[in-house]
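re: ur question from yesterday

yeah so i grabbed the chain u mentioned. its 196 aa long if i counted rite. heres the sequnce exactly as i have it in my notes:
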Amino acid sequence: VDFLKANGLRALVASAPGTGKTLVTIRAIVESHTTSLPAVIICPASVTRNWAKEIRKWAPGVKIVLIDDASTPIGKPSTPYCFYVISWTLMDPRSDDLIRLGVRTVVADECHYAKNPDAIRSQGLNYLVQHASGVLLLSGTPIVNTQGVARHFSVGKLLRKIHPRQIVDAVVFSDAIEMVHGVMRGWWRSQECVGD
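ran it thru and got these structure tokens back, copy pasting raw so excuse formatting
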């Protein structure tokens, strides 16, 4: 929680499933409420209700708007202390509505859903992120970052959503990661020979 707050709620939370990414995210946002709310949680449709349940549990008193279809009204809430929960499928068609509400923090649960920059959901996420001060990307899914995949998608492209000025070129970032992996593979091989 302290790390997320210290970094202005701009981070990739990539811990294993079941390690508390949801709780940590909710607490960090609530503890930074003066600058982080309203917030939008973008997640798979299968877990929208679970997010709402967890917000109720860990942030009692905060208003929750569950957007579960294209016609759900999402007018300005009576309080800025509000979480909007929306599925990846509905996020793009409703992104203008969310921006009009002044959403300050965007949480992309299972952020690897936005791995293809040409996909509508990736473009919708990019659009929302441009209007938010906080961007929390969550994933418990290992992300492939091999040379062949890196030209199309990489960890660098996700990180660029968090810190666009620091991760300037995703391909360069991917190449650097590949270089580090190569050096580490060489070091590991040299260590295997030491005991022979």
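noticed a couple things. The longest strand covers residues 82-87. also The chain has a mean pLDDT of 77.
anyway ttyl
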